[in-house]
Every structure is written in C-alpha cells, then in structure tokens.
C-alpha cells in the first residue's frame, strides 16, 4: 500500500550551513542530503557554498570539490566520471540523473542533491541497491538455450537481429529509472521496475534465446509487470536515452498476442 | 544492521506533465467510481417509481450536489481522453520521451474542450 509520508526516522532535520570559501568569485548554493548511520540522528540537508570559478563543470566535480575542501565526510559513489558505470546516479534538482553527465550550467537556481528516491539510505547519497540487483537477477539476464550450439562457430545473429537488442542492452543499471517510478516506490517488493523489465525485454527479443515462453510466463503477473501504469518517468530520466516504458509496452503486447 | 532511513520521494521529485497527467488520471478514476454509486442510485430511483425519482431529483438539484455533478463531468471528460491515450500506448505507439510529453499537454487541452462542450450542451438544453 502506498505510504506517502516518510517514516519517523527518515524525516529531514535542520542541517548545517557551511560558510563560503574565502576569496570565492562565483558562488552557488549547493544543498546536500546527509545521513550518518553512526550518529543515530535523523537525516539532514547541509548547505554549502561552491566557488564555481575553481570547480569543474559537472555536478560530480562539485561534489568532489566540496568533499576535498569543505567536508571530507560527504559520501557518494562514483567511478568512471563519463556516464558508463552508473555509480553516481542521484536525484539532482528533482530529477534522477548521473552527477557526472549533469552540467552545473544546465541547472537553474540552487543545486539540490538527494539520494535516489524511496530507497534505504546507507550513508549520505549512497542508497542500498540490494533489492534492485536481486530484481535484475530474477529476470535471468543471460542467454538460455535448449538446442546444442553449432560445433564450428558461435550462435550468429543478423545485423537486424543485433540492432533490435542493441539499445536495450546498453542499460548501465544505474537505477535512475526504477527509483523515479511512483509504482516502484509503492510496490518495489513485488513490481520488478523498469530497469529489470527492460533487461527482461532485451532477452525476450534476443534471436538466440530459446526461453522466450518461460520468460513471458514469469512476467505474466499482476505485480511483476502490470504495476506499470505508463507514468513515463523512467523514459524521461534515462541517462542513456533508453526507453523502458516502450519495452514494457512491447512485453504487454507479446503477452496478448500469444493468446490469440 | 542499523535501521536505514528511507530517502525522500514525493517531497523532492519534480512533477513533470507526464507524471501529473498520470496522477490526474488515477484521481479522476477514483472520483468516477464514487460517481457511479450515485448513477446506480439514480437508476434505482427510476425503477422505484415516480415518487422516489422525484425525491432523488430534488436532492441532485441542491447546490452541493450540483458541484459534485460538475466535478463528475470534469472527471469523466479527463478520464475518457486519458483512457484513449492509454489505448494508443497499448499498441506500442507514442511512447517516446518527447511524444509522451506532447500528448500529456494534448489530452489536457482536449479534455478541457470536451468539458466546455458538455457544459454548453447542459446549459443550452431547453
């Protein structure tokens, strides 16, 4: 059942305001969600003053700068800094995106950074993604075959067959889509969410996969698939410009088509 | 393991047209299920004879009931148009990011026009 209010231990308390660095030329206010599991206190939102003149262009640069110069305890995930690892997914000015591919310039007003929405918070901007990964594993994201492989070569695809899975297979599992979905917020225990369903679609339409029927059987469920109400937040936020909403609509179509 | 807080969701998330149009569709659908109880009551009153019908007719003519019926007309118009958009989506069309945002605006405008038409017909009726 949808619980619209945050639980008591999750309500945001008043945070700390850090003073502007001396000699700063171009200041911008950055508000960051903070939670320290060791303190026993509620989460809070701290306010920082960022000197954009001495900072790189991206939100990730701002986080690294503030961590290096103001508060070394700011905690966040990051790795590739070029939008391919999916580690630095967070909610920036109300929208889920990758901090490394979001320019400070494209954001208007103050910068507000929260962890991915409706997730258990490990620390600061680090959410617990255990359930998200388990859902990915649940769609069996690997090639399943019944027939023996050709003895002299790989299982080949035509160019067209590859192009069908080319986009869906580009998913980096950053969780921006699933955690932007209100249906996923209210039913993440039973609804697989856009990321896992996009992965399921990628294997259903793979010309080499021979478990299409079983895969569709697994998804034919009021919650696992049909909690998608085409809210479109997933497609709206995907940093790789993928379209989970259409993938889900295509799965729904296949489920109807196989009955006629 | 310490109890982990839940990260904020509704309070921080940006309400885009697509999200708002989906919420409105859900909201008007819920309102219409209340409206259908009134519709069933009206059908019952017709079956129960002229006296019962006159009684309910009087009740539905009171100002609060009129506001309620107007809300039902608005809900019905929006829910109808939004439902047609869902039918189009079910064929796999119109699901691109830009198209879905345009159609969110489109159904908003179309449903307002439909509401105006319905209200015009009500008032213009002899």
Describe this structure in words.
The complex is a heterodimer of chains A (260) and B (126). Chain A contains 8 helices and 8 strands. Chain A has 260 residues and is an alpha/beta fold. Chain A has 2 domains: 8-127, Ubiquitin-like (UB roll); 130-257, Orthogonal Bundle (Fumarate Reductase Iron-sulfur Protein, Chain B, domain 2). A 6-stranded mixed β-sheet of chain A has the order 1-3-2-6-4-5, with helices on one face. In chain A, strand 4 (89-92) and strand 5 form a beta hairpin. With 126 residues, chain B is mainly alpha-helical. Chain B has one domain: Fumarate reductase/succinate dehydrogenase, transmembrane subunit (3 helical TM bundles of succinate and fumarate reductases, Up-down Bundle), CATH 1.20.1300. Chain B has 4 helices and no strands. Chain B is extended. The chains are: A alpha/beta (260), B mainly alpha (126). The A-B interface holds A 4, 6-7, 9-10, 12, 33, 35, 37, 40, 42-43, 91, 93-95, 112, 114-122, 127-128, 180, 182, 185, 229-233, 235-236, 241, 243, 245-246, 249-250, 252-253 and B 2-14, 16, 18-19, 22, 26, 86, 89-92, 95-97, 100-101.
Largest sheet of chain B: none
Quick one: how many beta strands of chain A?
Answer: 8
How much is the radius of gyration of chain B in Å? 20 Å
State the secondary-structure class of chain B: mainly alpha
Distance between the first and last residues' Cα of chain A = 34 Å
Explain the layout of strands and helices.
The complex is a heterodimer of chains A (260) and B (126).
Chain A: E1 13-17, E2 27-34, E3 44-51, H1 59-69, E4 89-92, E5 95-98, E6 111-114, E7 121-123, E8 126-127, H2 130-138, H3 159-166, H4 182-187, H5 193-204, H6 212-219, H7 233-237, H8 244-257
Parallel strand pairs in A: 1-3, 2-6
Antiparallel strand pairs in A: 2-3, 4-5, 4-6, 7-8
Chain B: H1 17-47, H2 50-60, H3 63-90, H4 97-124
Helix pairs in contact in B: 1-2, 1-3, 1-4, 3-4
């Amino acid at each position: 059942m949808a619980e619209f209010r945050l639980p008591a231990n999750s309500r945001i308390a008043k945070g700390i305001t850090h003073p502007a660095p001396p000699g700063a030329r171009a200041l911008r206010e950055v508000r960051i969600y903070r939670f320290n599991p060791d303190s026993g206190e509620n989460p809070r939102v701290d306010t920082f003053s960022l000197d954009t003149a001495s900072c790189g262009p991206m939100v990730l640069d701002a986080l690294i700068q503030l961590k290096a110069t103001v508060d070394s305890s700011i905690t966040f995930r990051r790795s590739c800094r070029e939008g391919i690892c999916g580690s630095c997914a967070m909610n920036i000015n109300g929208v889920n995106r990758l901090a490394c591919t979001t320019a400070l310039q494209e954001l208007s007003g103050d910068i507000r950074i929260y962890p991915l929405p409706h997730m258990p918070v490990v620390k600061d901007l680090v959410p617990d993604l255990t359930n998200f990964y388990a859902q990915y594993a649940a769609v069996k994201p690997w090639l399943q075959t019944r027939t023996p492989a050709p003895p002299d070569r790989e299982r080949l695809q035509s160019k067209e067959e590859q192009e069908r899975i080319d986009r869906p297979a580009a998913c980096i599992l950053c969780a921006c889509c699933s955690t932007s979905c209100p249906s996923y917020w209210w039913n993440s225990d039973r609804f697989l969410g856009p990321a896992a369903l996009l992965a399921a679609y990628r294997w259903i339409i793979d010309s080499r996969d021979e478990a299409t029927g079983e895969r569709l059987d697994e998804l034919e469920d009021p919650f696992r698939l049909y909690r998608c109400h085409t809210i479109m937040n997933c497609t709206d936020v995907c940093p790789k410009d993928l379209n989970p909403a259409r993938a889900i609509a295509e799965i729904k179509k296949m489920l109807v088509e196989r009955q006629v | 393991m310490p109890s982990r807080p839940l990260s904020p969701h509704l309070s921080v998330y940006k309400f885009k047209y697509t999200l708002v149009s989906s919420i409105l569709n859900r909201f008007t659908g819920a309102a219409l299920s209340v409206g259908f109880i009134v519709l069933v009551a009206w059908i019952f009153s017709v079956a129960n004879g002229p006296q019962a019908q006159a009684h309910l007719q009087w009740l539905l003519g009171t100002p609060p009931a009129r506001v309620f019926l107007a809300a039902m007309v608005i809900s019905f118009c929006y829910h109808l148009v939004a439902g047609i958009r869902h039918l189009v989506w079910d064929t796999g069309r119109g699901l691109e990011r830009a198209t879905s945002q345009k159609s969110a605006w489109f159904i908003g405008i179309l449903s307002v026009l439909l509401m105006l038409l319905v209200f015009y017909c009500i008032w213009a009726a002899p």
